[in-house]
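Anyone have tokens for TetR/AcrR family transcriptional regulator? Sequence:
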Amino acid sequence: MTSERASDVGPGSPVERAFAAALTPRRERTRERLLDAAFTVFARHGIRGASIEAVCEAAGFTRGAFYSNFSSKEELFLALAERAMRRQLTSLDTVGKDLEPDLVRDGAVDYDAIRSILSVVVTDPGDARQWALMRAELELLAMRDPAVGRPFLAQEERLRAELGAAISRILDSCGLRFKVGERTAVDLLLSIYESSARAAVAAYPTPEDGDAAPDTAVLTELVNLLVTTAD
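Reply: yep, here.
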């Protein structure tokens, strides 16, 4: 376990700001390759079982390249989670721009269209098993180690707030709203999805057992309960 202070690592920290200021296209490509490799290595061996050497080998880099971009496995793990959410936010923004505004017809909400909007917050089914495993590990690590827990919670707070605001903007543009507070709605949606994702992995623990994509039936029902017209 690393001994970095929580304030020194994670998004928005001095380490992260210094890195961003010095980022070059070549270094950005190196960082992305390390993140891609870490996704595979962490999912296969877990954060405890995966070594920095294994991540470097999978990415085709030396330890020096790793430490030029990340101070620890834990910081790499947090960066991986941040990248995933950023991609989801980008997808959500794209859906919002291309969305037909007529989601309310004769006073009735087109929930199929709403579900298509919210579906972008769901991890790609091909990655669902790996993300469910890594998410569970990250949460356990955050609960056991304050040096990971504090930046993890700060990252979660910021990203969920951004996600809620993005969804609310789309709903508002279509004459819709959440029936409950924005943050409460996001927490409920993500909690239901993550619970379903864990259950799917437990039911199908290996790729040979079958597709571990989570069942979104409950998520669909929850959307019906959470979204209404703005009137």
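The chain has one domain: 6-229.
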